Amino acid sequence: MADLYAICRSPAGLEVRSVQLSQQVQADLGHILQAQEHAFMDGIQSVIPFTGDWKPDSDELLVINALPEVQILLQAAAQNAVALQPLDPHAFLNQNVVGIFTALGGGQNVRLLVQNFSAQQILQAKFTVLFDGNVFRRLTEPAFTIASNLTAVVDGAGSIRFKSYASLRKILDISPVFRMATDADLATFCAHPSFGVANTQAFVADADEGIRKQVHAINNSGVLVQHTVPAIQNQAAAIGFNITVTAGRIDVPADRKGAKELFSFLLNKVYRGPLNQMLFITNSNRPL
């Protein structure tokens, strides 16, 4: 039988609470989650270290190692579930449940099967009816639904296998291994001698998640150290990608779309198709 745990996020950080289940529900839930694990792993051929720069194909998984918050889940799973604070079914919304998981196996062979959880899964927050006897009646008892798929599988060493970064970060803090540029990072970036930014304050204010991820990746890539502005301009011209240089600085477009296209070029994500010679931009890349 599988114990069920709720992952709750509070201002103090992440905590795990036990979800009290009947023995029959424990058994049924264990079968359901194991079936979801089989579906999650079905057809997987490759496991790729997560860098923030690759979206997996259907036969691939991403993996993150040494994420601090994972240890909180593993430590909770190593305890007797009754030793944990139980989830209060009458105060669901106040406990900010962001995920649920169950643990299979033990020790280094343990596997945590993790799902996202959102307020939409709390049924008593909605007008819900169920068939009882010969009629439908309103559900008034605390209730929630289980998602139809896993978000991640965690092994005993703390490795997290997942398919969607967007889904995983709703549960766990990814910033220790992957972060975006802060406002200060953006301001420093705008002051780089290779760039000309007309209005730094406006650039920072308008920068969305995509821009911040690109700026962080450019800073880490070393492209501005390895290549001069004339070299970058020449390579852009070679494939027909337009870059404007003023007084030795690459002009960063004021519009978000133009800035993202420029940053994609600097991250090797703009290319000319070898067969049709069309110019393409990709949102992820991986060395062949």
Report on this model:
The protein is α+β, with helices and mostly antiparallel strands and 288 residues long. It has two domains: 4-168, no CATH class; 183-281, no CATH class. The chain has ten helices and 15 strands. It has helices at residues 23-41, 68-78, 92-95, 165-168, 183-190, 200-206, 209-221, 223-226, 229-239, 256-266; strands at 4-10, 13-19, 46-49, 60-64, 97-104, 111-116, 129-132, 135-138, 152-155, 160-162, 195-196, 245-246, 249-251, 270-272, 279-281. The strands form four sheets. An eight-stranded mixed sheet has the order 2-1-5-6-9-10-4-3, sandwiched between helices. The chain has a three-stranded mixed sheet with strand order 11-13-12, with no helix packed on it. A hairpin with a 6-residue loop joins strand 5 and strand 6. Helix 5 (183-190) packs antiparallel against helix 6.
Query: Roughly how many Å is the radius of gyration?
Result: 24 Å
The helix count comes to 10
Globally, the shape reads elongated
Report the span from N to C terminus: 44 Å
Overall structural class, as computed from helix and strand content, comes to: alpha+beta
